[in-house]
Amino acid sequence: MNTVLKTLLALSVSALALQAHAAPYQAIVPAKSSVTFSYKQMGVAMDGRFKKFAAQVNFDPTKAEQAKANFEVDLASVDAGSSEADDEVVTKSWFNATAFPKASFVAKQIKQTAPNQYEVQGTLSIKGLTRDVKFPMKHTAQGKDGLLTGSFTMKRADYSIGEGMWAKFDVVANDIQVNFSLTTTPGK
Fold first, then answer.
1. Structural domain containing residue 61
2. Which pTM does this prediction carry?
3. CA 1: distance to chain centroid?
4. Which of 48, 100, 117, 118 is the most exposed place for a label (fewest CB within 10 A)?
């Protein structure tokens, strides 16, 4: 195969790949998405998840700097591994889900750091307290859809999660690893 033909073939494949990402992702597919967390309780690794969350996104992987994203998690939808833990974590000492039913994340800046790799900066609000967060995110194309994955570590004390007798970190560690896997799809 001559050089010109190889170049044309490579350009055609590149153009097709770009066309697959032509429409920005504007919605998440909850059934194919997850928000999970992990932490240590008495030195033992524990895992949990949130069953209800919603997002407003406008993300084009080729124009990350123009992206917008708002994400809300229904705190009462927590699954901490047992009904006893689920009942406890929504109380005033932990999430205080009655007064603060949702946690929210608002992306302020998304920038590409490598092919399909991004750095996301934004604010995370829980229990009326807002803190800046920054984390890496990966994009994986899945036909017309895209998979956005990432994680970050938050300090529960920064959001008054675990007050009173739970304020110390001897039983439940301060570090909480938050993980997300969001299947996104173009708008209608």
1. 23-186
2. 0.85
3. 45
4. 117
